[in-house]
Amino acid sequence: MLLFIFGTRPESIKLAPLIKKFQEDKKFNVKVCVTAQHREMLDQFIEFFQIKPDYDLNIMKSNQSLFDITTDGLKNLEKVIKTCKPDIIFIQGDATSAFVGALAGFYNKIKVAHIEAGLRSHNKYSPFPEEINRTLISHLSDYHFAPTQRAKQNLINQGIKENIYVVGNTVVDALLLILKVIKNNPVIEKQIENYFNETMPSFHSLIANHSRIILVTIHRREIFGKPLKDICLALKEIAKREDVKIIYPVHLNPNVKEVAFGILNNVENIYLTQPIDYLHFIWLIDKCYLILTDSGGIQEEAPSFGKPVLVLRNVTERVEGIEVGVARLIGTNKEKIIDEVVRLVNSKEEYNKMAKPVNPYGDGKSSERIKDIIGRLSL
Predict the structure, then answer these.
(1) Which CATH architecture does the domain made up of 2-169+363-378 adopt?
(2) Active site includes 116?
């Protein structure tokens, strides 16, 4: 019995192709438990990937704290684990749902498989709380599926030397799955275009006129407050240019939403939208000119499209993209953000240096590798 535990949008995206892969193999009995740490955004993705949870903890509450997620998740998982008695618990990444999943497995002496193991920023407060979550998860896990050699070395440096497997990142599997769905079905692509035309009446003209679309995503806790205000003020300044349009799907967290709409609502050339489901978001990445983000997942996805990524963090655990030149770490300083965007918009040469379809994080075969390894270990 395999039990997958997750609760956020990024976890669902990265686990979906792996869950599907195991479900296709009749040798495995698969159960899915969602904590619903993020309710609405999680539901978008499990519906798209047609994943039916066997257990739904539904722990999300208004203005929830890390204490709420941890205690509510852990207590409810105790009941789930005692009911289904899994042989292996799968958790992904570094969300608090992943940490409590690993801890619950440890408390019940059940083997834990960690997908996307070994990422490290080496700063305990950035990203917060993910850096400590994943460090603790590594010491609670039995099987470590690292996306890159660097991630494997990070684990070894922390004294974890057994059962480490470098398999790539399953986010590339999910990405290629989505692209296949879109390209093989013109009706779906038309539906996506219609969606954006309905939600943003001027969207068709943006595409038709080959506008330089800057796609923005911001959600991390460490940018709440002044850093987020500085980012928004930078966007407001950048939007004064007639040659760029900014599309910003605003995260539902009130700490983000209130600031973003307070500064950027009704600003010309800036389009604030509701969170976009994965299918539409991937299509939008393909259409944009460059990306401003604090998301780890987007740092992994965008290189497959050859889209430059300006990372709104002071540190990142996805250093492979920085090293190959497809991403740049720029922080949250207002003037720095403006300068970096202007540099890429004004100079085709500088843009082309970053706009390379090179993805150091995976090749789309990670799920198959993990399934094969678990199959051998089970035997």
Answers:
(1) 3-Layer(aba) Sandwich (3.40)
(2) yes
Are 264 and 231 a contacting pair, CB within 8 Å?
A: no
Q: Taking residues 197-224, what's their average pLDDT?
A: 83
Output the CA torsion sign for 3, 23, 60, 254.
positive
Of the residues 114, 120, 219, 220, only one is catalytic, namely: 219
Q: Which of the following is catalytic: 68, 189, 193, 221?
A: 221
Is 87 a residue of the active site?
no
CA–CA gap between residue 375 and residue 98 (Å, rounded): 22
Cis peptide before 186 (omega within 30 of 0): no
DSSP state letters, 202-249: THHHHHHTT-EEEEEE---GGGTTHHHHHHHHHHHHHTTSTTEEEEEE
Domain residue limits, the chain: 2-169+363-378, 196-354
Q: What angle do CA 86, 17, 186 make, to 5 degrees?
A: 150
Domain 196-354 in CATH 1.10.10.10? The answer is no
Q: What does the pLDDT average to over 18-41?
A: 90
pTM of the model: 0.83
Catalytic residue among 116, 131, 317, 320: 116
Please state, in angstroms and as integers, the Cα–Cα distance from residue 246 to each residue in 230, 268, 276, 309, 331, following that order: 16, 9, 15, 14, 19
User: Do the strands 2-6 and 309-311 form a parallel or antiparallel pair, or are they unpaired?
Assistant: unpaired
* 241-280 residue pLDDT tens: 989 999 999 998 889 999 999 999 999 999 999 888 888 8
Residue type present at position 201? P
Residue whose tokens read 């998982």: 77
Q: Give me the catalytic one of 114, 134, 144, 251.
A: 251
d(CA 1, CA 80): 13
221 catalytic residue (yes or no): yes
pLDDT for 208 equals 66
The runs of H, that is alpha helices, within the chain are 9-24, 39-48, 66-84, 96-107, 130-140, 149-157, 170-183, 186-199, 203-208, 226-238, 254-264, 278-287, 296-301, 319-324, 334-346, 348-354, 366-378
- For 72, residues 6+ apart whose C-beta sits below 8 A from its C-beta are 57, 59
Q: What whole-number distance in Å separates Cα of residue 148 and Cα of residue 299?
A: 14
pLDDT: is 2 or 47 the higher one? 2
Out of 56, 72, 130, 340, the active site residue is 130
Residue type, 351: Y
Rg (CA), the chain: 20
